[in-house]
Prior knowledge:
The chain has 199 residues and is an alpha/beta fold. It has helices spanning 51-64, 75-81, 83-96, 131-150, 160-163, 169-178, and strands at 12-18, 27-33, 67-73, 104-108, 119-123. It has a domain at 12-150: Nucleotidyltransferase, domain 5, CATH 3.30.420.10. It is built from six helices and five strands; from the N terminus they run ββαβααββααα. Residues 10-199 form the RNase H type-2 domain.
Amino acid sequence: xxxxxxxxxxxxxxxxxxxxxxxxxxxxxxxxxxxxxxxxxxxxxxxxxxxxxxxxxxxxxxxxxxxxxxxxxxxxxxxxxxxxxxxxxxxxxxxxxxxxxxxxxxxxxxxxxxxxxxxxxxxxxxxxxxxxxxxxxxxxxxxxxxxxxxxxxxxxxxxxxxxxxxxxxxxxxxxxxxxxxxxxxxxxxxxxxxxxxxx
Length: 199
């Protein structure tokens, strides 16, 4: 069972990102402040929750959270500054948008750049330990999935409606056949190397 929060004195926001390992599309991040004693039996790390249940949880979190925000950093910026910096920047952008100023940030993972003077705590696999981080993981994942699905009609050959931009066999094969588009992350070295012909 998830802990509602790490502590009960400071206003606490959970933060998480989605899409770090994808071949295409932005990285998304969310920040969520939950009310005291928030509980929902389906809530967990987004990777452990079925898609239908994630969408149900998104509506519940958006309705019941004391404050929440979601932000993204584009694939072009990921290529410029690297995925770790882009993920942290997306978290900062989400925190910027919260209607309540957090006094403590719970960050999923082990790396973070301090946000202004706000205290933070990095928690490995925190999305499976604390409800506010799990809620952030649900929002980041569902917002990102919806964004990638919206691009599917424009680029159906990559099968993004199913793989959400991850490097599945079908996605890699499509890159080999059609090349990359403006949403691919070129810094990920996903363009197949040309065969060297021996003469």
